Amino acid sequence: MSDRGCFSTNMLRIYIIFMICLHVCSASSDCTSHDDQEAVSQDEAEKATKLKLGSIALLLVAGGVGVSLPLVGKKIPALQPENDIFFMVKAFAAGVILCTGFVHILPDAFERLGSPCLQSTAAGKFPFAGFVAMLSAMGTLMIDTFATGYYKRQHFGSNNGNKQVVNVVDEEEHAGHVHVHTHASHGHAHGSTELIRRRIVSQVLEIGIVVHSVIIGISLGASQSIETIKPLMAALSFHQFFEGLGLGGCISLAELKSKSTVIMATFFSVTAPVGIGIGMGMSSGLGYRKESKEALMVEGMLNAASAGILIYMSLVDLLAPDFVNPRLQSNLWLHLAAFLSLLLGAASMSLLAIWA
Question: Which sequence ranges are marked TM in the entry (predicted)?
Answer without folding.
Answer: 51-73, 85-106, 126-147, 204-226, 261-280, 300-320, 332-355
